[in-house]
Amino acid sequence: MTSSTFQDTVNEFVLSKDQVQKIIDGLTEELVEGLSTKDPKNITQQPSYITRLPTGQETGLYLAIDMGGTNLRTAAVHLLGDGQVGVTMEKHEITHDLKTGTGEAMFDWIADCTAQLLKSVALDLGTTADLQMGVTFSFALHQTAINRGTVLAMGKGFDLSDVMGKDLKDLLEGGFARKNLPVSVSAIINDTVGTLVSHAYVSPSTKIGVILATGTNAAYIERAADVSKYNGPACDQMILNTEWDAMGKASYLPQTKYDKEIDAVSLVPGFQEFEKMVSGLYMGELVRLSLVDLIERNAIFEFLGGKVPESLKPRLAFKTLFMSTIESENNPEHTAVDHVFKSSFGIEGLTADDRRRVFELVHAVGKRSATMTAAACAALLHKANGASVNLDDANEITTIGIDGSVFEKYPHFSHEMMEALTEILGKDRASRIRLELARDGGCIGAALVAMVSHSGGAV
């Protein structure tokens, strides 16, 4: 009974070919729907107002900030041409109090962080005209111009007052004005758009940008004629911020009871259901909920007698970092499992079977995330095929630039994504896909877009 109960739980995270295809078909349907819908509740497929990728020859000094789910990065970016950049960057943790406070307090803090950067790079504000800034904003915006967009929704633990529905340029420049900083916002992009643009600066075959960290999202290049929701100047193509994190419906997502529990207790149930199945914020919680259930059913850690330790009860107590530690160990005894549970939870006495089972569970949850991310990338590749991507040209390489701690640091994640893409696309097509790590895309991408926007060109 114990063994079958455990295996049944692990098997819930193992996806069949049919389940993967349903994810691809479902996401593709939502990608198409998002191109035309005027429903303000549908935040997917947001036009970025960026109509071409950089050439790699752009030059100049521009400020940039990258506001994500965990940190704010401020940067002075020197574009040097020939795909080269010089970056002075500072990182600041966004505290819980900031995330759940007032909008004014948040944007004053951003201005203070920017002032600290300017001091670090020794810019003399007294002799400096308005400094141009590109902004990467990792949350849903309704973009109305290259440097304007109203805030639609903020997940990732944010609950700011007086921000929803406001224009981000006005919010930021209000903070700069209150702190007497001569900074103008000349471009606003999403972090995943920044990843696409910045990686294309150094790798011109890049057609898709993906973020896979605390949250997840993607951007790609679409035919402008297919983007009926776009009302801007005429163009041939448009980079779209898919907001695929907010996609996903119960009709096609292979949700376990643990996925449903995570959604039910989240700040906004029914929102970002795809993200809650694959991103770094939730992977560890899926393992914790599974372990709690298995302990209560006496299917693991039997020495506890079905009693869950207090240390395992808090939400998000089992971090995705612990999964990475466990999977990174090349040791059949899985001694890293012992270390994690002893040092972080005060749990000792695990048997060899316990350690093996924890490893199997962790591996299954991690592999499901990689497979689902690959399925989402396949949906984008299919949607863009014949436009910015040509899957059938044996001489064309398509690069997917991926930024984020899960892709960069989680063991074997890129390999398992590539295995899943090979299964989905076939060996020939998959051999022409490259998955590449794209670091610091938010700041560099924002600076690139700010440069072209300020110079009067259309990116």
What characteristics describe this protein?
single chain; alpha/beta; 16 helices; 19% strand; transferase; nucleotide-binding; EC 2.7.1.-
Molecular structure report:
There is one protein chain. With 459 residues, this protein is of the alpha/beta class. Helix content is 42%, strand content 19%. The chain has a domain at 50-203 and 441-449: Nucleotidyltransferase, domain 5 (2-Layer Sandwich). It has helices at 2-11, 17-36, 96-99, 103-120, 168-178, 191-202, 257-264, 275-278, 280-296, 320-328, 335-345, 352-384, 405-409, 413-425, 427-430, 441-454; strands spanning 46-47, 59-67, 71-81, 84-93, 131-137, 140-145, 148-153, 183-189, 206-212, 216-223, 237-241, 398-403, 433-437. The strands form three sheets. The chain has a six-stranded mixed β-sheet, with helices on both faces. Helix 1 runs parallel beside helix 12 and helix 2 crosses helix 12. The longest helix has 33 residues, at 352-384. The mean pLDDT is 91.
Produce a short descriptive summary.
It is built from 16 helices and 13 strands.
